[in-house]
Amino acid sequence: MRIISGKFRGKKLTKFNQKGIKPTTDKIRESVFNIIISYLKINGKNGENQFEGFNILDVFAGTGALGLEAISRGAKNVTFIEKSRDNLRVLYKNVDHLKVNENVKIIKRSIRKVKKIEEKFDLIFIDPPYQMNLIIKKTLKKILDFKIIKKKTLIVLEHSNKKKIPIPKDFEIIKEKYYGNSGLTLVKLK
C-alpha cells in the first residue's frame, strides 16, 4: 500500500493485516481520486495541488489511506474518525511516517458516538467494513444532522457490490462504479 500521487507519491503506508479488514487497494484508491478529479474538474501537476485548501472528513478511516492520499494531493486538513484501537495504531503510524500531524485531527470513537463536529467539509469519505453496508444510510443521516456539508460537498461511499446500498432521500447519486467485490458510489445533497 502506497501513496499514489502528489508530494508523497510512492511512499509506503503501513498495512493492516487482520481478517475481515479490507484496506482500499491502490488501484481502487487511484480510481476514486480519478473519478473525483474528473467530476470536480480539478487540474494540477502531478497531483500535488489538486485538493489545495480542501477540508476532508474520512469516516471509518482504517489505515487513513484515503485521507492521507488527499493530503499528498494538497488537502489542507483531514479529520479521521476511527474507533478500532488496532486501526488507530496503524493510522497514527502512517500520519507520523508522512509527518502530517499538523494537517490531521483524529476522533477516536464510532461515528455513532460523535456528538458534534464543528467544521464543514469539501469532501467526505465513508468506507465502513463491507459487512456493515447498512450503516452507510445511518452515517449519511448523522452527517446531515451535524450540518457539516457544504452545497458542493462530494461524498464518496465505498461498499460491497453484493447489495444495493440505501441512500437517504436528501442525497442524489452522481456516479456508481464497481471493481470486483467493491463498489463506489458518489453522492451529494439534492
Reading off the top of the CATH hierarchy, the class is best stated as: Alpha Beta
The percentage of residues in β strands lies in: 25-35%
For this structure, the quaternary state is single chain
At the fourth CATH level, what is the homologous superfamily? Vaccinia Virus protein VP39
Shape: globular
Structural category is alpha/beta
Q: In the CATH hierarchy, what is the architecture at level 2?
A: 3-Layer(aba) Sandwich
Succession of helices and strands: HEHEHEEHEEE
Low-confidence stretches: none
What is the CA-CA span between the terminal residues?
35 Å
CATH topology: Rossmann fold
User: Which strand order spans the largest sheet, edge to edge or round the barrel?
Assistant: 3-2-1-4-5-7-6
Question: How confident overall, as mean pLDDT?
Answer: 89
What does this structure look like?
- The chain has 190 residues and is an alpha/beta fold.
- It has a single domain (26-189), classed as Vaccinia Virus protein VP39 (Rossmann fold, 3-Layer(aba) Sandwich).
- 26% of the residues lie in helices and 26% in strands.
- The chain contains four helices and seven strands; from the N terminus they run αβαβαββαβββ.
- The chain has helices spanning 26-40, 65-72, 85-98, 135-146, and strands at 55-59, 77-81, 104-107, 121-126, 149-160, 171-179, 182-189.
- The chain has a seven-stranded mixed β-sheet, sandwiched between helices.
- The radius of gyration is 15 Å and the shape is globular.
- The model has no long low-confidence stretch (mean pLDDT 89).
